[in-house]
Amino acid sequence: MLSAFGKAFRTPDLRKKIFFTLSIMGLFRFGSVVPTPGVSYANVQTCLKGIESGGLFGLINLFSGGALLQLSVFALGIMPYITSSIIVQLLTVVIPRFETLKKEGQSGTAKLTQYTRYLTIGLAILQSTGLIAVARTPGRLISGCAAPIIPDTSWQRIVTMIFVMTAGTSVIMWLGELITDRGIGNGMSILIFTSIAAGFPSNLWSIKLQKGLFAFSFVLAVGILVVAAVVFVEQAQRRIPVQYAKRMVGRASYGGTSTYIPIKVNQAGVIPVIFASSLLYIPSLIVNFTNSQAGWAVWINRNFVKGDHPVYILSYAAMIIFFTYFYVAITFNPDEVADNMKKYGGFIPGIRAGRATSEYLQYVLSRITAPGSLYLSFVAIIPILALILFGATQNFPFGGTAILIVVGVGLDTAKQIESQLQQRSYEGFLR
Questions:
Q1: Cβ atoms of 159 and 375 closer than 8 Å
Q2: 68 in the Ramachandran plot: left (φ > 0), alpha (ψ -120 to 50) or beta?
Q3: Which of 7, 134, 237, 298 is most exposed by smallest CB count within 10 Å?
Q4: Which run of H or of E encompasses 48?
Q5: pLDDT at site 166
Q6: Can you count the helices (H) and strands (E) in the chain?
Q7: Phi, psi (5° rounding) for residue 11?
């Protein structure tokens, strides 16, 4: 992989793409620290010292690279686009029009992308309005801090802040598309990677300051092992062999090739973890807004707020397993794959084409999803284990959503660099 990056820097057009991507990442980080007009930067920094935020705000803060709690221009980060993409992807299963667009190829995909953009703007308006509504009351966004984050709460100032944050989300979408078109890798994924990786050095150093050198060394060693394990599992796949029969068209013959269907162990990616984290925060969010002191509210505060309670851990793991199976079921359709294989004369050796192939694919998919869901659950609760062992969850970077995204994006970007190098040279990485 290091040799791939070395050759990429020695290739003029690839070097230009890499530097362009790095410059966009730098611009994105700059916008993440520029405060929104109307926000008291001094009060925000005072509130953030020694105070952590978990739950849904912590998740969004992770994707925004710390910009959310600072109420910067890019406070919403890439989260509205991620949510919109997931919603549109789910709607392709429910709405026939969306399913038709998905099958139309590039033109249909462009139309779905346009719908995703519109939905992103709508969600950005809603999320910025909700964020400002919470932040204008001292102690609501950053608990335990009485300093006013938004001193001026007039409607003109609020409207201006909503407009600026929504515009910031639009700029983030534009930057991501610039990286996809003129840089290296998927633009949105690169921006998510940038946001998460930006917090790694400070989080590690805070562990060193709070817990000492031994804890820091232990966390670093565990982090290296976790990264190695995640890389191994993310690249693991079950390859189902597929044989295409020869077809004679005139005097020419077509087909007769062998290929395979790759089914990854982690077919769902990081989506189940995001779903589970968001849904588990809803009960505590309801209690926070209602200020209820009823028995159910006390039970939620005791079991679901801090995150280290056995009920929370078991619920978190169970929801990740459920959403893994759910997401795999809607994104991989064995019937559609079997029909396409039959249409082009393909078959799995030893399996009849058609219904038998679909049942076999479903059999393999359900069994390979089981270890994949358990793997996601284990990686997701690593920060909770860090909370129990070291008393720090937000400062533990090697686990949960963060490490899954960082490793996944890093592997995907490295593969894209290698593929572009192979297009420019017949030498490559086939050894």
A1: no
A2: alpha
A3: 298
A4: helix 41-48
A5: 92
A6: 19, 5
A7: -95, 120
